[in-house]
Design a protein that fits this description.
Elements lengths: L4 E6 L3 H12 L4 E7 L3 H7 L6 E2 L2 H7 L2 E4 L6 H10 L3 E4 L2 H6 L2 H9 L2 E2 L9 H8 L3 E10 L8 H5 L11 E7 H7 L5 H9 L7 E6 L6 E9 L3 E8 L10 H14 L7
Parallel strand pairs: 1-2, 1-4, 2-3, 4-5, 5-6, 7-9
Antiparallel strand pairs: 7-10, 8-9, 10-11
Helix pairs in contact: 1-11, 3-4, 4-6, 9-10
């Protein structure tokens, strides 16, 4: 039998915490080897197993085969670089930051590393990737979130746009996925993932609405290609962090399971 893949989880927010707990509960072929967090005492309360080490970015990269990144965007490169330099599998949740650090993709090729972007809060990325093997004419995404899920986003703060006490939906952004990921780094990593699966961050169009009439993070995607035309909508139940859906952690777990499972469904 093969030794289990050693997984490190960087960041114990809503997603990282759930991924860590599920790994501790047991997934065949996977082992939670280490975690990384600023508050070690809190991290140990979340993962009391002393066999799971608490390490910094370098230690995580040295110890683990797979590193799952669920950090504040400012910490992204600090953990991505050492993981990639050691040829590890790097699973980023801050996908928007990957767009801003695209040199890491070439670096991964040179070092034999892999960057695996999880599906996250979307659906249908398999279909988008398949369509991209042909010619995609357009990809449009419309995101609607409860206002509290967008509050504090850099784009809104810079433009003095308030989403408090809204009585009706307010469109707060209309542009490219790249611009959206930059202005809403904690909110629309899904748009960055969609753009990477399809026609790129500059050709993928994105609208973001602060919508007091919805209670779930809702994404509608329309794709027009030479081989297929389709639309899809997903409504994600927010986690304890209103910016992130509960399904995001589960998509990471599913991706990790696919690394070791004898049966893998989908591309």
């Amino acid at each position: 039998m093969k030794a289990p893949l050693k997984v490190g989880v960087a960041g114990l927010g809503a997603v990282g915490r759930e991924v860590a707990k599920r790994l501790v509960a047991g997934i065949p072929g996977l082992q939670l080897a280490a975690i990384s967090a600023r508050d070690h005492e809190k991290a140990r309360r979340i993962v009391p197993d002393q066999a799971v080490k608490i390490l910094d970015a370098e230690g995580l990269a040295e110890t683990c085969d797979v590193i799952v990144e669920g950090l504040p965007p400012a910490e992204f490169r600090n953990f991505a670089e050492p993981a990639i330099d050691r040829g590890r599998i790097f699973v980023p949740l801050s996908v928007g930051k990957l767009l801003e650090n695209w040199d890491l993709v070439e670096r991964a090729r040179e070092r034999g590393a892999r960057i695996l972007v999880p599906t996250g809060a979307l659906l249908g990325l398999d279909a988008v990737r398949a369509a991209a093997e042909g010619t995609i004419h357009s990809v449009t995404m419309v995101t609607r979130k409860p206002p509290e899920g967008l509050a504090g986003a850099a784009y809104l703060v810079e433009r003095n746009i308030s989403v408090e006490n809204l009585k009706e939906p307010l469109k707060v952004f209309d542009g490219s996925a790249r611009e959206g990921a930059r202005g809403f780094p904690a909110n629309v990593n899904v748009a960055a993932a969609l753009s990477l699966a399809g026609i790129g961050p500059d050709k993928t169009t994105l609208q973001i609405w602060a919508d007091p009439t919805v209670s779930r993070n809702t994404h509608r995607i329309d794709v027009d290609a030479d081989t297929v035309r389709f639309s899809m909508t997903i409504e994600n139940v927010p986690s304890e962090n209103p910016r992130t859906g509960r399904v995001v952690a589960l998509s990471v777990v599913a991706q990790l399971r696919g690394l070791v499972s004898e049966l893998k469904v989908g591309t």
